[in-house]
Amino acid sequence: MYVAGPSSLTSIKSCLDEGMEPTCFESSDDIGGLWRFKEHPDPGRVNIYQSVIINSSKEMMSYSDFPPPAHLPNNMHHPQLLSYLRLYAQTFDLFNVRQRPDFPVSGQEIQVFDAVMVCTGHFTQPHLPLNDFPGIEEFEGRYFHSWEYLSAEGLQGKRVVVVGIGNSGGGIAVDASRVAEQVYLSTRKGAWVVSRVGAGGLPGDLVGTSRLDRLVQKLFPSWITMMMEKKLNRTFDHRLYGLQPKHRFFAQIPVVNDDLLGRIISGRVLVKPNIREIKGSSVVWMLWCLPLATTMTFLPSGLLTNGGHCLCLYRHVFPPGLARPSLAVVGFICNLGAINPLAEMQARWATQVFKGLLTLPSQEAMLQAVKRDTSTLQNRFACLERHPLQVDHIPYMDSMAEELGVRPNLLGLLLREPGVGLRVLLGPCTPYQYRLRGPGQWDGARQAILTQWERVAQPFRTRMPPQPESRTRASSSLILTLSVTVLLLTTFYTRHSLSSLPTGLLYKIYSLPEIIWELKPRLKPTQQYMCTGGSCTDH
Ligand SMILES: Cc1cc2nc3c(=O)[nH]c(=O)nc-3n(C[C@H](O)[C@H](O)[C@H](O)COP(=O)(O)OP(=O)(O)OC[C@H]3O[C@@H](n4cnc5c(N)ncnc54)[C@H](O)[C@@H]3O)c2cc1C
After folding, report:
1. Residue of 202, 215, 235 lying closest to 517 (CA atoms)
2. Where do the TM regions start and end (predicted)?
3. How far is the CA of 121 from the centre of ligand 1 (A)?
4. Counting Cβ atoms within 10 Å, is residue 297 exposed (0-12), middle (13-18) or buried (19+)?
5. 71-105: b (≥16 Cβ within 10 Å) or e
């Protein structure tokens, strides 16, 4: 039976698409990987906690030929994400249960394969740097790593220290603070905190993440960073809240959390600096929310470089040192957005390499490329040793897509199908863009792009809001045309002239696509909702 995590599922599908015969080895007893919450975690396996909600929105996290069902919320609770993964596996028949004809004799014996894809997830080992906390050996309270945290059960009335303010640290601090007497959130470096909810109440990762946004960011990196930080500090002053980090906004994955500020302003969570020393048990529980280390003990140790931080993988997939490209690593990657589309792109690329349809460069060229990428990333991202797998979403996807022949042809689209082309340029860079052409082209891709905002709106349609008495309806197409023109002009402005414009005005110009979405006709009213005898139905 094929059972697997999100990266394995898409790898299995890519193999099937290419006519290969995949066999999946999974150490647990069901699909979902990290997203299958376990009351009793498998020993030695990472688990999530009960209240985890995904940071990425469903449209950004979906597989490129499988848009999420419209009714699912935009930022799903983990069981809903698991249901999406199950649906994907069922739809593409990835659950195909088949025994090899020679099963009784082959059993657990050595089997030979033409190629191997490693999709074991990169959150594999807890990192507990106890030596950094003098006095820990005398600590009388309980301490453990966040991967053992399931829920706030047992924390009632306790004083809890959460060490580290990554996404897990922020989430667990909020979760624990609902029952604990007091939660202290200890952070050495601080963090930028962003909401899942963006402009106009839309999912934050769908707004301001288009190809055009990316182009503007590339042309004016410091200006965009400054604007972003100003915007965040207008929502809440990171310095006032004790969260101000040293690093700039795009240098590290931000903390995505909608509740942390509320817990801090109410005093339920107190932000504290790094712990210097632990004396006695003045604190009752300590939870280490530090990055998990990546291990692949079953692979040759030569794959690991830089003291175990950075994997020496060409394009984060192929080890350069092998005689034949028959081993690919999928899903060992992270970015400011969702991982699934990256893993899917890696799997599509790797299977083409396995089949010999794409050729890798020489070993020396691959090693040079790994070196170059590592040094680019070192300049680009802070704390690379903590997040050695970090990449820029659109450039990474585009570079793989280019080789695969599936990168969207923007100019052609704008000329032939401006409706789709404008969405690809100005809209969120959703995964369907990589199914418009080339190998693995999917006929539903256009429709998926045209209807993506419909799927975003659908889960909000739970109540018919009263219509305002009179409303000026701006013409969306006129605004769209105007904003494209202004944005293109802005983009080609020189750095000098831009800096001479007032920041507020620049921000307004730059935010035009967001404003368009806000001016879009309001969500359609819901139908009547009837509740009789304990059950509710749409009418
Ligand atoms: C708290 C938290 C929140 C997150 N939120 C997001 C988010 O919002 N968006 C996002 O994109 N990502 C998020 N992530 C990252 C998340 O890891 C990925 O989305 C996704 O789970 C990666 O899938 P995967 O298949 O690569 O790894 P996993 O989901 O970890 O699956 C790996 C699978 O491999 C199996 N396995 C491991 N070792 C072996 C072995 N030796 N033999 C056989 N089987 C093995 C495991 O049992 C598991 O089923 C989050 C992570 C955490 C911890």
Report:
1. 202
2. none
3. 4
4. exposed
5. ebbbbbebebbbbbbbebbeebebeeeeeeeeeee
Report CA(445)–ligand 1 centroid distance (Å): 26
**Residue of 539 and 310 predicted with greater confidence:** 310
Q: From CA 36, how far away is CA 85, in angstroms rounded?
A: 10
CA of 119 to the centre of ligand 1 (A): 9
DSSP 244: -
Q: Nearest Cα to 281, choosing from 164, 129, 143?
A: 143
The beta strand positions in 48-181, using DSSP E, are 116-118, 142-145, 159-163
C-alpha to C-alpha distances, 478 to 418, 423, 474, 484, nearest whole angstrom: 14, 15, 8, 10
The protein residue with its alpha carbon nearest to ligand 1, atom 4, reads: 54
504 or 482, greater pLDDT? 482
Question: What's the pLDDT band for 130 if we cut at 50, 70, 90?
Answer: confident
Cα 270 from Cα 189, distance rounded (Å): 15
Which protein residue's CA is at the shortest distance from atom 3 of ligand 1?
54
**pLDDT at position 493, please?**
54
Q: Which of 11, 13, 34 has most ligand 1 atoms within 8 Å of its beta carbon, as the pocket-test mutant?
A: 34
Q: Which residues line ligand 1 (CB under 6 A)?
A: 4-8, 25-28, 33-35, 45, 48, 52, 54-56, 61, 119-121, 123, 167-168, 331, 338-340, 343
pLDDT at 99 over 60: no
Q: Given this model, what pLDDT does residue 531 score? A: 47
Tally the residues of the chain: 539
Q: What mean pLDDT comes out for the span 387-411?
A: 90
pTM exceeds 0.90, yes or no: no
| Core vs surface per residue 120-158: b (16+ CB within 10 A) or e | bbbbbebebeeeebeeeeebebebebbbebbebeebeeb
When mean pLDDT is compared across 49-58, 267-276, 297-306, the lowest value belongs to 297-306
Most confident of the ranges 55-64, 133-142, 292-301 = 55-64
pLDDT at 494: 47
